[in-house]
Amino acid sequence: MNNQIIYRKIKNITQTGTLYSIYCVVVRASEIKKSKEDYFITLKVTDETLETETLGINLFFKDDHYIEFIKPGTIIRFHDLKITKTGDHKLGTANLDAINSTKIVIQNDANEPISLRGNLNFNSNDEAAFQQLRQFYERLLESGLDNYAHPEQRNTNNNNSNVFNASNAAQHFNPDLAKNSFKNSNNAFINRIGDLVVGCYATLTCQIVSIKPIFGPPKRLSVGLWDGTGHGQAAYEDKLGMVIYATAFEQKTIDIFENFKKGDWLYIERIYCKQYQNVLELKFQFTTKIQKLENDNIMVLKLKDDYGKAIDNYNGPNTSEPSSIIDPKENFKTISDKSMKNNRGRQLTRTEYSGLQPVSTIQDVIASRQCPNKYLISGVLKQHFPLNVQDFTQILCKRCDRATPTNTIYNLDSGPKLVDLPICKYCQSNDVSYIYLAKFIVADETGEIELILHYDAPLFFQIPPLNFYLKDSTLELQRLQEKISNLKLSNMSNELCIVSYYQNTNLPSPDTIRYQIVDTLMTDY
């Protein structure tokens, strides 16, 4: 098949709308982005015929399997790449899921050829072309050309955007560790999930908290891992620390986990850290090594000892025996079984569905794209909008069905601007009522989600919607502010019932799916 294919050099690409076959090396690669119906990454590629020019490629796909292998330095063979623009800024488009789409072959981190689409062979000519481009890329790195990105520069332009974890991992970001991990061949021994950075290969000692098969497509396995350090917040059940989810696509890795169960300790080498749909996650690679650790392993004992001390510190003084009198080698089970005080992580919300159906993770809710549908989630309130709780309510006109913020008719300096009773500023009707209209950012260990508070907000707060700028509403405002403050406590994870709906019912699509809190109320703690 390859003998019938003519490979062009990038400098010889001159016609738009034409399909070309090329060998190239990636010099820049963006993060995964969302399009209307699928996802894409933007690549800048070149070959040995160009000194400073590049070819831009928008690579579309529906599933990210193997996509993270495409990064600066990756050699790619494209078949049937469609060119959409020529001249000084050449541009191509590839879609891995369309019929008769572009076919791609790359080499993974173990230098094994991978076909991203199509059953394509890989012969000695391909290997020679790949080797030539590898040598060319090494020369590029040595030359220090500013318009080519080094591998360690990928994902390091903005530290805040590179580290995202719903369990507050960003506040534990260590820039020195991140910098060193990229310099050392993207490989680092990282014992705390909070220190993970996008694009690094980590070595972790961790405990399995969940094993969930996903039957695809594609078939894969999701494994919840807890770092056991006690570093962070209560992110899983009553454990202190952080949980991250790792995905296995390869059957040989999936088979390995048939020998493991929840509660087993693992030592994992060279597992890849990535960001997908704004969630930090891990992926098992071909070169990832997995080893089960016994409970009396020295690394496990050390973690359990540190965890016992972290629990003592979390619970406060005089809540348990001093950890200094415990011999971790002989009493590791006692240490690991320490739990947080019951009043930590108490539930401030209640739903009629509690205990009746499984709790969904935020990652699963967003990925399901089912609409309309109800879910039960458990998460922490990270932020609310408007930021001023007084602005949680608006005035809804029953005649024109338009809403007006309460602060537009009343403020603390001038008092009422129109009349004592509110009227609609659009149609001047006094047939109005107060409504709640606010947004919560809620997070669990898998990600964040935006939740609207509207129809069931009076049930949720157990406070009727009022104009909280009025003196008559002072007591209700204080109650509302106290409820919000308690919800935002970092260790408060609460059950919420949510429903998915289309923001625009005339144009239903995954991009217009929104979520609203329903059938949930705050308890009178």
TrEMBL record:
Localization per record: Chromosome, Telomere
Keywords on record: Chromosome, DNA-binding, Telomere
Domain of life: Eukaryota
Domain named Telomeric single stranded DNA binding POT1/Cdc13: residues: 7-138
Keyword Metal-binding: no
GO molecular function: G-rich strand telomeric DNA binding; telomerase inhibitor activity
Protein name from the UniProt record: Telomeric single stranded DNA binding POT1/Cdc13 domain-containing protein
